[in-house]
Structure formats: C-alpha cells, structure tokens
Design brief:
Elements: E1 2-5, E2 8-12, E3 16-19, H1 21-24, E4 34-38, E5 41-49, E6 61-68, E7 80-81, H2 83-91, E8 94-103, E9 109-117, E10 129-133, E11 144-145, E12 152-159, E13 162-168, E14 185-190, E15 198-202, E16 210-217, E17 223-229, E18 235-241, E19 252-255, E20 261-268, E21 271-277, E22 284-289, E23 299-302, E24 311-317, E25 323-334, E26 337-348
Antiparallel strand pairs: 1-2, 2-26, 3-26, 4-5, 5-6, 6-7, 8-9, 9-10, 10-11, 12-13, 13-14, 14-15, 16-17, 17-18, 18-19, 20-21, 21-22, 22-23, 24-25, 25-26
C-alpha cells in the first residue's frame, strides 16, 4: 500500500510472519533488537515466551536470534539462544529482554539486556545489563551492569564511535510510568565499545506519567529524544541536543493525531519514521516527518486491539537499489499471545 505525502510517498509492503509462535504454542513479547553487523548481514532477536503465563503477555522465557545474509530478505532456519537469558530463566529471579543492540566500528556487538521480574508480567525491573560478542553472536561475554539505576533502557544508538543508551530510571514497582521526581530519563555513553558506561545527562523532559522513549541522531548530528505521556497520548514529549546530550534546547511536545505508545524511530532517505502502538490499544500506527517535530496525520497499519505491537526497525539495502526499512513487531494470534511479524517500508520521492 502507498500513502501520499507532500513531496514523497510511503510504500509499505504487506506483513508476513517472521516467527510463527502460534505453530509452536509459544508467545514472544519485547526483545525485537535488530542490527546490521556488516553490509547485508543482519542479526535479529526475538523472545520465546510462555503462551500460558499472563495469557501470553509476559517475558517468561528466553531470547533467541537468527541471521540474514541477504539484507533481511531471508533468515536462517537455525535458531540461536542467548546464554545469559537461558541462565537467568533457570535461576528464576529475572527474565531477560533484548530490546536494543548496536554494532561498533570494530565489529563488537553490544546487546542491552533488560532484567524483568521472572514472576510477574515484566516489571519491576532491576538494573540493566550488557553482554557483548566479538564474533557476531557466536559467543558472548559475561554480563556487566550498564547503569546503577533500576529501570528500562528504551533505546540505544551508535554515533561517532560511542554507544548511547536512553534509560528511564524507574524500577516499575508501582507503574512503568513515572510516579515520583526520582524517575527521570538518563543517557549513558560508552566510549570503549560497550565495556563500560558513564552517565552523560538527565534528559530535561517531564517524568511524571511518562514512560517508554526513543532517541535518534538526525542528518546534522543532532540528538532527538521522545517520551510517551500516559495522560496525553497524542502529545509526545520532544527535546533536542546539539552536542550528544551535554546540553539541551527547550522541551516541547509533538502532536500525533492517533496517539502513540512505545515510540520507535528511524531515518530513511531524509524522512523520519515513527511507529508504535496507538493510543488506548487501538492498533499499530505509522507517522512520518521531515523534521522530527511536525508529524503527518498517521496511518493505522494494524488494527488488533490486544497487548501487542511492540516493535523495532533497521535500515537495510534494497535489492532494487537504495535503502528500505525493515519493521519488526508483535501481533496477537490469541488474546495476548503474539507472532513476530516483518514488514518493509520504502520512501519514494
């Protein structure tokens, strides 16, 4: 399907199943990290979770990953398991999600691990951890702590030789959204390929009632951070830094007409793409913008109203030339049990 915009067209392919959890009697929430390790060679993470606990809407399981050697056109049948996630499950204290990962210039793969409560839906959370691989995921280091604050890392980017991680420092004991002034968004950076992280800043956006988050570096190197407001789902917080988080401009809000939850962003052909669950669990929504502040009216690209549409994306080479965006997301097949879907997006100008 195509959506016409002022100066460009969004070409969105039909969805197709990447992981058929219904067939294997499982579910798969969160853990949608995808990384292009080198040109056309992609690692794609997903979770393998219980289809029974919390009706399938939990992180009770482990993390898997698959490879593509043709820029996401096909993926290996062989399924790999992240050792840290299996060990954590067997220990019975935490379950692990890998929502974000990056690859460094030297090839180091950095997977950022959320530590969920193994006995609940996911939160409360412990401090986030990092595991690294120096051989494209064949072997992994022992986990190390990314941050001393309990919470959830909602995004990670690699920019000019550094790994940046956006954490909402809220342990989730009462809610995943902020409920006291200590709950703030912080950015941490690693200048040694994920071996250690240091705090860069507290992001100057409101914290009360906030949750989820996304960040992206635009074509000019400016860092954009976005946050979800549970009390105003059509008004997404937005703030920009010109110096990788050291200082910030004035926080504002972006109007998104169909609302947004768990925002995910990408830039392709100079256009900013935003996708996530829509307001009030009303479906899966896609927006685009030329500046990352002013968004179009959005399009519903999925209409399931269950507990799904966690998502992620990666920009890859298009076999027909140029670039295209691979969007990965969860979609319900039974109440809150989900399959993992793929969908391609191209920008035509």
């Amino acid at each position: 399907m195509e959506f016409k915009r002022n100066g460009y067209t969004i070409d969105l392919g039909e969805p197709f199943i990447h992981v058929d959890n219904e067939r294997r009697g499982r579910s798969g929430h969160m853990s949608h990290a995808m990384v292009e390790l080198h040109p056309n060679y992609v690692i794609d993470f997903n979770s393998n979770c219980s289809a029974v606990i919390h009706k399938g809407h939990s992180t009770y399981g482990w993390v898997e990953y698959r490879y593509s050697e043709d820029a996401g056109v096909t993926f290996s049948e062989e399924i790999h398991e992240l050792p840290y996630s299996k060990k954590s499950l067997y220990d019975g204290i935490n379950t692990i999600s890998v929502e974000k990962a990056v690859v460094c210039d030297d090839g180091t793969l950095v997977a950022i691990c959320l530590r969920n409560d193994a006995h609940k839906l996911c939160e409360p959370w412990d401090t986030p951890m990092v595991v690294r691989s120096f051989d494209e995921g064949k072997t992994w280091t022992e986990p190390t702590e990314l941050s001393p604050y309990k919470g959830r890392v909602y995004d990670a980017r690699y920019h000019n030789g550094a790994v940046y991680a956006l954490e909402f420092c809220n342990d989730g004991e009462k809610s995943f959204t902020g409920w006291n002034e200590e709950h703030v968004y912080r950015i941490f950076a690693s200048y040694d390929n994920g071996a250690t992280f240091e705090e860069v800043c507290v992001v100057p956006i409101p914290s009360m009632g906030r949750g989820y988050g996304s960040m992206i570096f635009d074509g000019s190197g400016r860092l954009h951070v976005y946050a979800y407001n549970v009390n105003a789902e059509r008004e997404m917080d937005h703030v920009i830094s010109e110096d990788c988080g050291k200082t910030w401009g004035k926080a504002s809000v972006c109007h998104v007409s169909k609302g947004i939850r768990n925002p995910q962003t990408a830039i392709i052909d100079g256009i900013v793409v935003l996708h996530a669950r829509a307001e009030q669990w009303t479906g899966f929504v896609l927006y685009t913008s030329k500046d990352g502040q002013n968004w179009d009216n959005g399009e519903y690209i999925g209409t399931n109203t269950g507990g799904c549409y966690y998502s992620n994306n990666v920009v890859l080479n298009d076999p027909d030339g140029g670039k295209r965006l691979l969007i990965q997301y969860s979609e319900c097949y039974n109440v809150h049990c989900v399959n993992i879907m793929h969908r391609w997006l191209k920008i035509k100008k």
